Amino acid sequence: MEKKFYHIDLCQGEVGRYVLLPGDPGRVELIAQRFDHPRLVADHREYKTMTGMLDGVPVSVTSTGIGGPSTAIAVEELHMAGADTFIRVGTCGGMQPQIIPGDIVVATAAIRAEGTSKEYMPIEFPAVPDFSVLSCLAEAARELGNHHIGIVQCKDSFYGQHEAGRMPVRNLLQNNWQAWIEGGCMASEMESAALFVISSVLRCRAGSVHLCLGNIERDKQGLPNPPVDHQEKAINAAILALRKLIRIDQG
């Protein structure tokens, strides 16, 4: 029997070249419903994987859990299993007032305010998506409506962002947050920096698209900020982008 990779519980060849990466295992089946003939191939720890066909090509979806460390494990082992193109299908919090809950954010780069990517490359190395994947995501987002394309910030501590004032390093957290906003950062999330840097090291392609769930900066300004938790927009953008990428790859 062929050996399975330890964390994702998959053997080589059980995933397609293209893999969508939600964080939540609960979103895997929702995404896989867009495939033809989807089937469950593994469900271990935070890593749930389904594989099917999209436009005649094998594709997969694997959950990564939350944050850079578990994302790194997923990307490393999925690459060993045969994948070379990754699209994160995630959620984020808006940082600019024009970003409304329910909008889509496509990352052009990620601020490496997390720790995982630093164990791959020095901090001077940029965390950027593959241009072909980014182009397809940006085009898909434009076709689907309310969207933003720009830099995202990646952190390791959810509560370090949302409750920075109670942290002993509050001054650092709050000053950095304000600097990122003034620099035009669009949104905050937890996985893209690690995904982009690791994919560069592995010579893989990666990109990320996010649904804005809320925007604390809108709250601060007294602007409407109704929470959302539907995933269809980000999934629609990822599937449409993946179809575009498959067509490009097929020439």
Helix content: 25-40%
Alpha-beta classification: alpha/beta
Give the percentage of residues in beta strands. 25-35%
Q: Shape from CA axes? A: globular
Name of the level-1 CATH class: Alpha Beta
What is the CA-CA span between the terminal residues? 36 Å
Average pLDDT metric: 96
Please give the largest β-sheet: 5 strands, mixed, barrel
Description:
By secondary structure, this protein is α/β, with parallel strands linked by helices. The protein has a single domain, classed as Nucleoside phosphorylase domain (Rossmann fold), CATH 3.40.50. Helices cover 34% and strands 27% of the residues. The protein is built from eight helices and nine strands. A five-stranded mixed β-barrel has the order 5-8-7-6-9. Helix 3 crosses helix 8. The longest helix has 19 residues. The protein is globular. The mean pLDDT is 96.
